[in-house]
């Protein structure tokens, strides 16, 4: 019986260890909400009956009178992150209410006044409420990231997506950006500000010991979810 108990305990410990390793592996890369995929290979150009010379290659060389701005699948462009948001909200509310009721009987046939005084009644009510609320939010995000065209819409707009990973020691920072770009807004150096990107999704997340230290444990989150107060 003791051997069976020890064997079950070892199996339980191994199961918990495997679950822990799986959770750690899943949390090694933070999840994302940007458009997928984050990169796209350009399609192979098929140009039959096109002769290639020693300098000009029809399948890889762009037209002589075409600029370098992105317009096809697999092309890259640079997004300049210039995000600044400021929001302030103040709310004040005051409510006052007072009411008073008085009732007195002086005569009622031959009923003595000492009995009528028993029916005298006075009622007063006072209600007061005061509330104040304020909220403030300030965000600044500056930088740049080069993204890839992953889709071209019928009207010519470009769906772009990209990721940048920066690892320093045991910490890894992820910058992810996706959105819809109007190619006419691209500058001559093939860049665009993030304020001109439609449906923009910008993320800055970290992975490592520092990031894990700022996350509430799963058991604490469980009790926070079921606590009624």
Structure description:
Strands 5-1-2-3-4-6 form a six-stranded mixed beta sheet. The two termini are 45 Å apart. The chain has 229 residues and is of the alpha+beta class. A hairpin with a 2-residue loop joins strand 3 and strand 4. It contains four helices and six strands, in the order H-E-H-E-E-E-E-E-H-H. The model has no long low-confidence stretch (mean pLDDT 78). The chain has helices at residues 2-26, 113-116, 209-213, 218-226; strands spanning 76-103, 121-152, 158-168, 171-181, 191-193, 198-207. Helices cover 19% and strands 41% of the residues.
Summarize the structure.
The chain is built from four helices and six strands; from the N terminus they run H-E-H-E-E-E-E-E-H-H. It is 19% helix and 41% strand.
Keywords:
6 strands, 4 helices, 229 residues, 6-stranded mixed beta sheet, alpha+beta
Spatial ordering of strands, largest sheet: 5-1-2-3-4-6
Shape: elongated
Helix content: 10-25%
Mean pLDDT: 78
Strand content: 35-45%
Question: What is the number of E strands?
Answer: 6
Low-confidence stretches: none
Element pattern in H and E: HEHEEEEEHH
Terminal-residue CA separation: 45 Å
What's the helix and strand layout?
Blueprint: H1 2-26, E1 76-103, H2 113-116, E2 121-152, E3 158-168, E4 171-181, E5 191-193, E6 198-207, H3 209-213, H4 218-226
């Amino acid at each position: 019986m003791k051997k069976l108990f020890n064997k079950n305990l070892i199996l339980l410990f191994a199961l918990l260890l495997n679950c822990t390793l799986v959770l750690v592996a899943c949390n090694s890369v933070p999840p994302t909400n940007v458009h997928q995929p984050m990169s796209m290979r350009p399609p192979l150009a098929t140009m039959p009956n096109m002769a290639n010379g020693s300098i000009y290659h029809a399948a890889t060389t762009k037209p002589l009178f075409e600029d370098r701005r992105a317009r096809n699948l697999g092309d890259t462009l640079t997004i300049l992150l210039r995000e600044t948001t400021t929001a302030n909200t103040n709310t004040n509310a005051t409510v006052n209410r007072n009411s008073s009721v008085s009732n007195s009987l002086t005569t009622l046939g031959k009923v003595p006044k000492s009995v009528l005084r028993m029916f005298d009644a006075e009622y007063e009510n006072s209600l007061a409420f005061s509330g104040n609320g304020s909220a403030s939010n300030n965000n600044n995000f500056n930088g740049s990231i080069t993204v890839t065209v992953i889709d071209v819409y019928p009207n010519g707009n470009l769906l772009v997506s990209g990721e940048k990973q920066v690892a320093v020691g045991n910490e890894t920072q992820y910058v992810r950006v996706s959105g819809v770009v109007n190619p006419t807004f691209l500058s001559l150096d093939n860049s665009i500000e993030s304020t001109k990107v439609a449906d923009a999704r910008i993320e800055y997340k970290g992975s490592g010991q520092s990031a894990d230290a700022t996350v509430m444990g799963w058991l604490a989150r469980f009790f926070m979810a079921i606590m009624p107060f």
